[in-house]
Design goal:
With 164 residues, the chain is of the alpha+beta class. The protein is built from three helices and eight strands. It folds into two domains: 1-31; 33-163, 2-Layer Sandwich (Beta-Lactamase), CATH 3.30.450.40. The strands form two sheets. A six-stranded antiparallel β-sheet has the order 5-4-3-8-7-6. A two-stranded antiparallel sheet has the order 1-2. A hairpin with a 6-residue loop joins strand 6 and strand 7.
Length: 164
C-alpha cells in the first residue's frame, strides 16, 4: 500500500510542476506585443499577446471605413478585415462609436456578431480630433466590454491628443 501512496505523491508533484510551468508560459505569451505605425508616425497601434486586432475607422458619408488595421504576427489564427472595408454607420461598434462622437459622447460602444458571426467589437470615438473616426478592437469569442472598453477609450483619447 505504501508503494501506491508514494507513486500518487510523485504524480501529484509532477502535475504541480507542469501546472507551474504552464502558468509561466501563459504569462510570457500575455506579455508579447506587436506594434505598427502609420507612415507619418502619428498613429501607433499595439496588439497584445492574445492577438486582439486594433483598427482605426473614419466616417465616409453614411458608412464607416477602416483606414488602418493591425494584425498580430504571432498567433495561429486571428480576426482580420481589409483596410477600406465599409459598413453602414449604424452597424457594428466602430460605426456606432463615430455616431456617438458626433454628439460629443466619448464612451465606448460594443457589438457582437453584427458584421461577422462570432466576432465582437469594442470601439470609442475620436472626439475633438478634427475627423469623424473611431478606434477599436475586434476579437473572436467572448470579451468583457467593461474591461476592454475603458482601455479603448483611453487609446482614443491619447490618439485624439496626438492628432490635435
Amino acid at each position: 500500500m505504501t508503494d501506491h501512496r508514494e507513486e500518487v505523491e510523485q504524480l501529484l508533484a509532477e502535475y504541480r510542476r507542469s501546472r507551474e510551468q504552464l502558468a509561466g508560459v501563459q504569462q510570457r505569451i500575455t506579455a508579447i506585443s506587436e506594434s505598427a505605425s502609420s507612415d507619418d508616425g502619428l498613429i501607433t497601434a499595439t496588439v497584445g499577446g492574445r492577438g486582439v486586432l486594433t483598427d482605426l475607422t473614419i466616417a465616409d458619408g453614411a458608412y464607416e471605413r477602416a483606414v488602418a488595421v493591425v494584425e498580430p504576427t504571432r498567433t495561429n489564427y486571428h480576426v482580420a478585415y481589409r483596410v477600406v472595408s465599409r459598413h453602414p454607420l449604424g452597424r457594428g461598434a466602430a460605426g456606432r462609436a463615430i455616431m456617438a462622437g458626433r454628439d460629443g459622447d466619448p464612451s465606448y460602444t460594443a457589438s457582437s456578431g453584427e458584421l461577422e458571426p462570432g466576432a465582437q467589437g469594442v470601439a470609442a470615438p475620436l472626439v475633438g480630433a478634427g475627423v469623424e473616426a473611431s478606434i477599436g478592437v475586434v476579437a473572436l469569442g467572448e470579451r468583457d466590454a467593461s474591461v476592454v472598453g475603458p482601455q479603448v477609450v483611453s487609446a482614443a483619447e491619447e490618439l485624439t491628443l496626438r492628432l490635435s
